[in-house]
Amino acid sequence: MASFPLALLVLLVTFPIGVDAFSNRCNNGIRRTFLHDAAGIQAETFQLGQQICTYKTITITPSGMNEGELPRQAVSVEDLTPHLKSYIESSGMKNGVLTVVSRHTTTALTINELESRLARDVENFFLKICPPDERSESEKKQTGVRYLHNDIDLRPDGEDEQQRCRDNGWDIDDDAELQKWRDQEPINAHSHLISMMLGSSESIPVVDGEMVIGQWQSVLLVDLDGPRTRTVGIQLMGYS
């Protein structure tokens, strides 16, 4: 319960003059305190229930992906919102924070409108900023465009990168294994760069069991190197 007086203190510091408070008990037994400043701005605090902290990983298969289809640096936008709503409901959390994180270096997360033509705009816009390498499998690759990351025959570059390959299960000290690692590496530097611009996580308030997002907002996974089956991490921290 330590967070309750802290939140109250923050509100009192924010509105030090002319703050009135009253409280009532909701149907679910949670006591709510409403604070009004002189301008009539309302803030709300909660007497919270049982603490909840839970995590899970979900798997996302891109819409329209064919079985056995190989990655070709395709860009797609997948809606995570139904998965997140379902997880909040099953957890019993009423108030807190949901954090969602991409677990890949060529996917990104954003909150925006889910609309098919906008998704195509997203692809066209970012591929103009970071066009695919002329050596890539992308249908939109551009002649004369080359990225250092895509010089696969020169990688791994340095002892640190070599050790990361070993740590991830590749015996690159064996020539055949090194070549196998290079053969499976995609030509996808542009996908990494776009991912860095968009970001890899979002934290969303949850109030009364609902995410605090706008009417037309959805939580979106943007795959920049697909189609591939992807995973996303979700953590809930709050109270029942």
Please describe what this structure looks like:
Helix content is 28%, strand content 31%. The protein is α+β, with helices and mostly antiparallel strands and 240 residues long. A five-stranded antiparallel beta sheet has the order 4-11-6-8-9, covered by helices on one side. It is globular and about 65 Å long. It starts with a helix and ends with a strand. The relative contact order is 0.25.
Rg from C-alpha positions? 24 Å
Major sheet: 5 strands, antiparallel
User: Mean pLDDT, nearest integer?
Assistant: 86
Which range does the strand content fall in? 25-35%
Which consecutive residue ranges, at least 5 long each, have pLDDT under 50? 1-29
In which range does the helix fraction lie? 25-40%
Shape: globular
Brief synopsis:
The protein has six helices and eleven strands. The protein has 240 residues and is of the alpha+beta class.
Write the layout of secondary structure elements.
Layout: H1 3-14, E1 20-25, E2 31-36, E3 42-46, E4 51-60, E5 74-79, H2 81-91, E6 95-102, E7 107-112, H3 116-129, H4 159-167, H5 175-184, H6 189-198, E8 201-207, E9 210-211, E10 218-226, E11 230-239
Antiparallel strand pairs: 1-2, 2-3, 4-11, 5-10, 6-8, 6-11, 7-10, 8-9
For the structure shown, list the relevant keywords:
about 240 residues, alpha+beta, five-stranded antiparallel beta sheet, three-stranded antiparallel beta sheet, 6 helices, 11 strands, about 30% strand, disordered N terminus
